[in-house]
Write a structure and sequence with these properties.
about 25% strand, about 50% helix, five-stranded antiparallel β-sheet, alpha+beta
């Protein structure tokens, strides 16, 4: 049968065939007529010949026969001619009917939604419709007339191959669904046989098949869950008829399933309880759920106490979970007998007392427990999940795990330290101590505990630790040596430089006296200087510092008397004057730093020879394997590998010898025989030794398992979290899941989100910063960051994100949560802008004030000063002109001179106070020296000024600020400090101008000063901050004060 694509040629072939038939008949008739005429002529001639040679009778007979033959030929010709016209009309009519039927057939086949193929008995394709071409992905011309098994060899011996043959052999209709692997599709085939071949209707049913298989799998899975559930499960209709029960119900009640299914549930309930505890089906149909206790009738006639949790399963069915609580009721009667004395003690204590029942999963306690949850007793049931939901997410799984392990080991005492979210939203730190009670068979019944809020204690402890770490960091970062010893010369603290430079160990320095570090000729001088510090509060000395190896280095030492932990102590530092020694010290410090890094590394660091024998191991490595350093040195690495692992996970020495670094996870034998999971990073050093870093990953392995177990719990919290959350792949950062809150906040649909990478949520200019910050994130911690995010509509929002690593569907991923802080950020920026504007205004006002003071000072000096000088000269001239012996006049003239002189001095002082001309004329250094001398003259306080900057000229605004700060500090010291000594130092450090002022006055409480709005200190702070500098006030009562100012230095000219 021709294909639909060749229908035009077929229609044109029919008229051509009819024309050929017509021509054939015309030739036949002509030939027949000629033959008859020839025969008749020959017969006539034959009769004449016979007549001439034979008798007349025979000749007459021959003539008659020839005539009969002639007329028969004429008749035959007439019939043949008539048939010609019949045949001419008949093919034309037949062709028209055939053409119409075939077109109708093709239209019908092409209009069906199924694919259609016609195959002859030799398995050649004779027709296929467009749908078949589409499914087979072949055009008609490439298949028509071809053997289908040659075109589709993969189908041979497959189910439909057999079905096609069976249909043709038996001439019976066949139908089958079959999977065809080359196309990865399911097809439904309907095969209609005939003697000429088969016709096939088929269609792609892959999607339907997948849905059907999934439904079957789900149905089987849920049926297995129901059947295997330890609790009884009952499914009933909304009319109360039992539709399905599981085996647990059958075992619980003693009935066969047939005795339960089809019966009304009320037949198995206590009649009296039905009145007090109705089924409440109407409320269940509204979506409510109920948890209650009731009695059910067993087959033996007795009643069983059960707990029922009922809810709506579908529009037409209800489901009930039934649990036998007979034993629980007995246990409750045995253990739920709290005494009045216990209740009084629980309410009187400051602790949160709680009592959890494992059987009922209900927690009770004193009023403080309910206050912690923000509820009143009886408002709601507190259970273990309620408690867990208030624990910080990072600690929940750990608490679950330790509780499980405690119960498995039958431990009675359990202690925990955790962060608990209070009603205010704050996480407080609690210490919980609890005792578990078990039944005779080891089943946990109750756990009684007491919780203490230790947040303030922990915060104070952490603050002390941070301050200690900060002070240690500062001390160890000092360029020289740092020391602190008491009046008996016992060292209490020092930095690593003291050990590194001197060569003495920590233990040796503990037992040394400060004098031991100096040569004999300078010991008396140093001893006097130390005594002077304890007497006067501070001193300095230059002396030769003696190292352990006898080498002497010139050092500059400082000393300051302080009170440290109730003792009078000397605090100081020393600086090396020798460049050579500085270089040696740096090298020594670098080597020591490397040794410290190695020894303090958390990973084990192993050095081995070319036969893998250990030649050195750090402390972490010894601790990891349980051996001492001496035990490990000389031992081969392969001795630590279990026998079975030597084959399954051999050491890759050949890769190391090629110069490659090898990272591998394997198991190693601990000294006690246990196996530990480790990660090893090894390489071959240039000197032929092997270096390995070994890390214990046991906790990481366990953590990975916990993460995998908790993935579903994360998913539940993820979907229902009111804040936007998402998950991204690692390290690709492709978004693989988002919750509804994220969809609402960012404006993308779920499908759009899942096509995005987290880079696309950032403005282009933030990408570099984003990738740098992601690289810093730690997988085992919650990473908090503030970003700018771009929504679908292009608007920018500020968000604070919390992210940590999880395992999601078997792969590493980031779980992130974001909080929109756009309004908060904008408010903060606005506040900062206002603050900067105010500071800028203050700076302008300060400049204007200084300019006005300069102008006023010059006018007073130039105008009023000159007038007073002229008046003085006139008075002097007048005194010479008046030749009087009047004592009163002479006295008055003398008094007038003194008054004018005093006025001139006052004018000069006022002009100087307004704006010292020396500051403008000679610069900052001269002005500071002059101010110190003037203050010393006025107050009697000794002022020492040390210039460590050389001769420099700074910007006018810096010079003015430093000078005014100096004036303010001297004024404060004069008013409040009662100091006898003031030491002022000016230096340069890292392109900053450093101003330090130290006095030995009465000191003050720095905490009290912070809360006071004193104009003097406030002015100092503002002047410093306006120039981008920093300030620091330190003071100890009775020990004086130290003020440090650091301002970025704008050097105009260096005169040295």
């Amino acid at each position: 049968m021709p294909a639909y694509s060749s229908s035009k040629n077929e229609n044109s072939a029919i008229p051509q065939k009819n024309t050929q038939q017509h021509n054939f008949f015309a030739l036949w008739n002509k030939a027949l007529l000629n033959a008859l005429l020839l025969c008749s002529l020959l017969s006539f001639l034959f009769s004449l010949i016979i007549y001439g040679v034979s008798n007349i009778g025979f000749a007459s007979l021959a003539f008659v026969v020839s005539l009969l033959m002639f007329f028969a030929g004429i008749y035959a010709y007439h019939i043949a001619s008539k048939k010609k016209y019949i045949n001419k009309a008949l093919p034309l009519s037949y062709s028209a009917n055939l053409d119409s039927s075939e077109n109708n057939f093709r239209s019908l086949i092409e209009s069906v939604s199924d694919a259609f193929v016609a195959i002859d008995k030799d398995w050649r394709c004779t027709y296929l419709n467009k749908k078949a071409c589409e499914i087979l992905n072949r055009d008609a011309e490439s298949l028509l007339g071809k053997n289908i098994w040659e075109e589709f060899p993969d189908g041979i011996n497959m189910p439909f191959y057999e079905a096609y043959h069976k249909a043709f052999d038996t001439q019976e209709f066949q139908r089958l669904e079959v999977y065809y692997p080359p196309m990865d599709k399911w097809f439904e085939n309907r095969i209609y046989p005939s003697k000429a071949g088969i016709t096939i209707f088929f269609k792609d049913v892959s999607e339907i098949k997948k849905i059907t298989l999934a439904l079957q799998q789900n149905e089987e899975k849920y049926r297995l869950l129901i059947e295997r559930a330890s609790d009884g499960i009952v499914i009933i209709s909304v009319e109360g008829i039992i539709l399905e029960v599981n085996d647990s119900i059958v075992a619980m009640m003693g009935y066969d399933k047939s005795a339960l299914i089809g019966h009304h549930v009320s037949e198995f309930l206590n009649d009296e309880e039905i009145k007090t505890i109705p089924l409440r089906i109407n409320e269940l149909m509204q979506g409510k759920s109920f948890l209650y206790e009731r009695n059910v009738l067993k087959k033996d006639g007795s009643f069983l106490m059960v707990e029922v949790n009922s809810k709506m399963a579908s529009k037409h069915t209800l489901i009930g979970f039934v649990r036998d609580i007979t034993e629980r009721k007995k246990a409750e009667e045995a253990i739920n007998k709290p005494t009045k004395m216990f209740e009084l003690i629980a309410e009187a204590t400051n602790d949160i007392i709680w009592d959890h029942d494992f059987v009922t999963n209900v927690t009770q306690g004193n009023k403080k427990l309910y206050n912690l949850y923000g509820i009143n007793p009886g408002d709601m049931v507190i259970n273990f999940e309620t408690f867990i939901s208030h624990i910080h997410p990072a600690e929940r799984e750990g608490i679950r795990y330790r509780m499980k392990k405690a119960i498995e080991s039958k431990a009675s005492l359990v202690t925990e330290l955790f962060h608990f979210k209070t009603t205010s939203g704050e996480y407080r730190i609690f210490y919980d101590r609890a005792n578990i009670r078990y039944s005779n068979d080891g089943t946990p019944l109750r756990i009684l505990g007491a919780m203490q809020d230790i947040t303030d204690t922990e915060n104070f402890k952490n603050q002390l630790i941070k301050e200690k770490e900060l002070s240690d960091s500062i001390i160890n970062s000092m360029p020289g040596i740092f020391y602190l010893f008491n009046s008996q010369g016992k060292y209490l603290r020092w930095n690593k430089n003291l050990e590194n430079i001197t060569g003495f160990t920590n233990e040796e320095i503990k037992n040394m006296n400060p004098i031991d570090f100096f040569i004999d000729e300078e010991k008396d001088l140093v001893a006097k200087k130390i005594a002077n510090v304890f007497t006067n509060g501070a001193d300095t000395v230059e002396a030769h510092f003696v190292l352990k190896n006898g080498e002497q280095i010139p050092y500059y030492f400082t000393g300051l008397a302080i009170n440290y932990e109730g003792e009078n102590c000397l605090l100081g530092m020393g600086l090396d004057f020798s460049d050579k020694q500085k270089a040696e010290k740096a090298i020594l410090k670098s080597e020591e730093k490397y040794r410290v890094i190695v020894e303090h590394a958390t990973d084990g660091i192993f050095m081995a020879d070319n036969e893998t024998r250990f030649i050195d191991v750090n402390t972490a490595g010894c601790r990891l394997l349980g051996y001492t350093h001496e035990e490990l040195v000389g031992k081969k690495f392969t001795d630590l590998i279990p026998k079975e692992d030597k084959i399954s996970n051999p050491v890759k020495l050949e890769l190391l010898q090629k110069g490659e670094s090898v990272i591998n996870e394997r198991r190693l034998l601990h000294k006690d025989g246990t196996l530990i999971e480790v990660e090893i990073s090894a390489q071959l050093l240039p000197d032929g030794r092997y270096q390995s870093f070994i890390r214990d990953i046991s906790e990481r392995k366990r953590a990975a398992e916990k993460i995998l177990q908790s993935e579903q719990k994360y998913k539940l919290m993820f979907d229902n979290n009111p804040l936007p959350m998402w998950m991204t792949t690692l390290p690709g950062l492709d978004i693989i899941d988002v919750n509804e809150a994220a969809i609402k906040q960012y404006g993308y649909s779920r499908e759009e989100f899942l096509k995005l990478n987290t880079r696309q949520l950032r403005p282009v200019e933030d990408l570099e910063y984003f990738l740098a910050e992601v690289a810093k994130m730690q997988s085992d911690k919650i990473n908090v960051r503030v970003w700018r995010h771009k929504r679908k509509d292009g608007s920018i929002i500020h968000v604070e994100t919390y992210s940590h690593e999880i395992v999601y569907e078997g792969q590493r991923a980031w779980l992130g949560l974001s909080h929109d802080i756009t309004e908060k950020t904008e408010a903060k920026e606005l506040l900062q802008k206002s603050y900067n504007d105010i500071r800028e205004l203050a700076s302008s006002l300060q400049t204007i004030r200084e300019d006005e003071r300069t102008i006023i000072a010059r006018e007073i000096h130039d105008e009023l000063g000159q007038q007073l000088t002229g008046l003085k000269m006139d008075l002097h001239w007048l005194s010479k002109k008046i030749n009087s012996h009047d004592v009163a006049i002479i006295k008055k003239m003398a008094e007038s001179k003194l008054l004018i002189n005093a006025t001139i001095d006052s004018v000069r002082k006022i002009a100087t106070d307004l704006r010292p001309s020396i500051l403008d004329d000679l610069g900052l250094l001269a002005a500071l020296e002059w101010q110190g001398e003037e203050f010393e003259k006025r107050s009697g306080t000794n002022v020492t000024f040390i210039n460590n900057t050389g001769e420099i000229i700074v910007k006018p605004e810096i010079a003015t600020a430093i000078f005014r700060i100096y004036q303010e500090l001297l004024t404060n010291i004069n008013r409040h400090a009662r100091a006898s000594e003031i030491k002022v130092e000016l230096g340069i450090e890292k392109e900053h101008l450093i101003f330090n002022l130290q006095d030995n006055g009465v000191g003050f409480n720095t905490e009290e000063i912070k809360n006071k709005k004193t104009l003097g200190l406030l002015g100092i702070k503002e002047r410093t901050l306006l120039l981008g500098g920093t300030y620091d006030f330190k003071s100890t009562l009775g020990k004086g004060s130290v003020t440090s100012i650091s301002i970025p230095l704008g050097v105009k000219d260096n005169l040295q």
